[in-house]
Amino acid sequence: MDTATAPLEFCVNVFGDEYIYDINREAFARIGSAAVFDGYFGAELFEEHRLNVVVGTDSGLLIRHILRKGLPKGTRYLFIEPPHVLAKLEEAGLLAEDHEEIACVSHDNWRMAAERFKITEYFYINGVSLQLSIAARDANLSEYVELSWKLDDELTQLRWETIANIGGENFIACTVQNCADNVVSATLLRDAYQGRTAVLMGGGPSLDEALPWIAANRDRLVLLAVSRIARRLLEVGLTPDFVFSVDPTDLSFDISREMMKYPDNVVFVCADHANPLLLGQWHGPSLYLGALLPWDSELNPATLPHPGPTVTNTALAVATAMGFNRVILTGIDLCFSAEGYTHAKGSNERAAGPRFTLSGMRTQTNGGWYANTTADLANAILSMGVQAGKAKEAGMEVINPSPNAARVANVEHRPLDEIELPAPAAAGLRIAIPGADEKRRHYDALEADLRNAKRHSDAVKALAEEALDCNGRMYSEDGLSIVDVAAKERMDRIEEQLDADHPLFSQLIKTLGIRDLIKLAKPFDAEEMDETEAKSTGEAYYKAYRDGADKLVKLVDAALDRLECRRQEESDTPDWDKVLPRWKDDRHFRRAALWLARHPAAAERLTAEQRAALDELTQQYETLLHQTDTTHLNDAKRNSALSASRHRARSLLKNQQPDELKKLAMALEEHPAKEEAQPYRLLVDGYLAELNNDPQAALQSYIAIIDLKDQAETILEDTLLRVAQICLERADGDNALFALEGLAQLSPIYHPQYAELLKLTGQPQAAVGVYRDFLERFPTNLFVQLRLARLYLELGANDSAKQLLESVLEKHPDNEAAQRLLAETRQIRWNFSGVP
């Protein structure tokens, strides 16, 4: 059934808001758009120096709301609408097309508009936000759903590509924080496993397929695992030889914390900037990739190749350097499974249920069919292909045995049962936890380098503070002219001194202050700047320098304090006043339990107070380790929300994709909320029956949904639409009328179709009442006015028809249909007085 048979015009609520009812329905009916927007967006939409990418304009009301409130300094708004909505709003002149800080485009043109708005600069200052309008949130038009999913994928990928190019404060901070614990470089792994076969295990769904084979051949394989699959490996009793992690964020700990339960012979291979909660609480040997310190230092070793963007890329590069002659990729799918999973069992993503927020991006699999993927995974497919090509040149085979994994260049697809493995081999390179002497030498050398860094950082900070003082004295009170030439000359010398005396640390400090420095480039227009631009720019520049130097000083001070803490930890009688505060500040709670395990005799001599302090930290670690309601899990649940399956199903029906609907049915069958998922599964079954030309089976599914009543409220409209469509096609007027009556109760958008069917089934006076009710809500709807006028004529209500048509022609004097109908009223000489 086509709900667009009677396209609605703009309607007006009691608050004077004019909007397209098809898009916003009842969203603004009770309290008006201004109050709705204030409650929904709050102050977030009006923060300064931001680029808001907004899906939908709420019939143009959101643009008017922003203009009425006033644009914040340095903020721009990029609205993205479906093409047919965009055309309607353009026709109505509601898109603020003459405003330089507001643009409204279709999805095809959003990247061009974003570049014009300098999205890269906004990314640098962490100033890009994806916002959903009320229309996109409610998704009365299904086009908004996929548009939101696509933009979320594309913005995420673009953000990563942009930020990766400038490095980051977090990477520097984590490298400094980790330097005390990064004792041994991963370079000792080079060529240590020549002739051996490795299995590189990622977190994709195909990992589960391979685990039994891996377990059966464990003594013939070297196991390399990404950190996030620890929970799953522990469940099946598999222990890897090496575990890898590169991500500096706390999310990495969130999804990898179970690696702390591995035995202490597992080797942790981590990037220099890996999350300190993982490295600082690791109990076994660890090897680091990259530099020991984020500045030029003799302590920085030659390093193994460790490209990103993902931990899988890093692990494959390290495996190539280790000399394996073959690496088998498992759980490295780079696409979704048929059920909608991206990850294997044991992951938060798997626990949340299948993902339904899938855009139309697809990739070919090793098995020859196509699977859904995302923008970041598509990029990983390309980078993995390049890496596999380099591995191939080095004489290493790269194999992915899963038919469900994405097809990747230079990666051979070969089923597991066709892979010939070497005979069982002796254990490989033995890597031990560094001894006390090795650690002491490391700490001593590191301390000298850190103190040197502190001297330079303090000096840069002092120069920046002096430059700020000069900048304040240099200008006249109005900031328009230079009055202190000596201050100007001193500022010039300071700049030369920064470059000449502190070149390495000056650049590093700029990186730490990069977000503030990039603000000086002003992604917004120059005319927004104050008259005192030169003075304010100089002030902002040296404040960024000073604050960057201050950040580095604090990082180095904490690193020096951490060094002393590590020295104390080697002792049977540490200075607890130094050790305990450091552990608490770093959230390295597990170090208490590790100290107790490594100093059993000394543990017996602790005072009750000391033991209580250590027990408290151990308890905090256990709480941290077993936390389940995490941010990452909640994010995964949002992608698996059942409401998203409704929108996806509707899109697949519209595009006649039965195979994808079957996959969606499989996903719903596996959803953890079985009872809540039942109506959605029935809806998909109905859609599949329709595409299989079995309307009777479809009706059975839809009737089952209606029988569920309140449990199926969210999909009742979709269900009744399909019932109406099928019954109309089968000339089943009574049931079609039942369905349309239900739809009309849900929304006035269906009143015109309901009225028309009432007329066709011999209830014309009831149809008149429905049309009148509709026109009370939408008095300017020309389509329905003409329908009602025609019905009046058919009933002989000549005066009512004439009055209505004259009203129409006052506003639309050239409307030919109204003119013809009015002419008919003049030819009719009688009228049935009893008709309303």
TrEMBL record:
It comes from the Bacteria. The keyword Flavoprotein does not apply. Transmembrane segments: none annotated. InterPro entries: MptE-like (IPR002826). Residues 436-463 form a coiled coil. Pfam families: MptE-like (PF01973), TPR_19 (PF14559). Residues 628-649 are annotated as: Disordered. Residues 175-337 form the 6-hydroxymethylpterin diphosphokinase MptE-like domain. The keyword tRNA processing does not apply. Keywords: Coiled coil. This is 6-hydroxymethylpterin diphosphokinase MptE-like domain-containing protein. It comes from Methylogaea oryzae.
